[in-house]
Design brief:
The chain is an alpha+beta fold. The chain is built from three helices and 14 strands. The strands form five sheets. Strands 10-14-13-12-11 form a five-stranded antiparallel sheet, with helices on both faces. It is elongated, with a radius of gyration of 20 Å.
């Protein structure tokens, strides 16, 4: 987080608080800054944890924040990508994937343009770094069908089929999950991973 003081006096007495949000994200420590001198900026890393007070928000990935300093209290909101809440324990085997895929209802697929991978191997590695795990892969016609699983911090498991065009420039993500309200945010997160530079 970057804090910039464009005022004539030093800013002190910093504190931060998050409102209740869907997954109970909250600061993992106090805001680590005591003073931002006039005309200066400072960079701070604020660790986040889950487990705080939760309540559904719209959109699902919205956080309302209050930032206090010697000038007063400032309120703002931001959205995050759902992939930051995916756990390292989200991998499953093919039999579990097939069983769940057949038991969950179909959902609206998400089209992704501007995929930024040179190969399926590179895509698989980048998704795995973000806790989206490969279950299986097969080539059908002009596309590679890539099957993945992921687990959210609340225990929700996402099962996806990602159809990637052979030119590696576009994909379609179809996802199933028992928490239908989280599917759109998950598909957007997968699209963000696939199109990030």
């Amino acid at each position: 987080m970057s804090l910039t003081n464009r005022g004539m006096t030093d800013l002190t007495d910093f504190a931060i608080q998050f409102n209740k949000n869907t997954y109970g994200i909250m600061p993992g420590s106090a805001l680590g800054v005591s003073c931002v001198p006039s005309g200066r900026s400072t960079e701070i890393a604020l660790p986040l944890v889950v487990g705080g007070p939760s309540a559904p928000t719209q959109p699902l990935t919205n956080i309302q924040i209050a930032l206090k300093c010697s000038l007063g209290v400032f309120y703002f909101q931001t959205q995050y990508s759902l992939h930051i809440l995916l756990e390292e324990t989200g991998a499953c085997d093919q039999s579990q994937f097939l069983r769940m895929w057949q038991s969950l209802p179909d959902t609206q697929p998400h089209n992704v343009q501007g995929v930024r991978f040179a190969s399926m191997s590179e895509m698989r590695d980048k998704l795995a770094m973000n806790n989206v795990f490969a279950v299986a892969e097969r080539v059908v016609g002009a596309a590679t069908h890539f099957y993945t699983s992921s687990k959210l911090c609340d225990g929700s498991v996402f099962y996806s089929e990602i159809k990637v065009a052979n030119n590696m420039q576009a994909a379609v993500v179809a996802t199933k999950c028992s928490d239908a309200a989280a599917i759109a945010a998950y598909q957007t997160a997968v699209a963000d991973i696939c199109t990030a530079v």
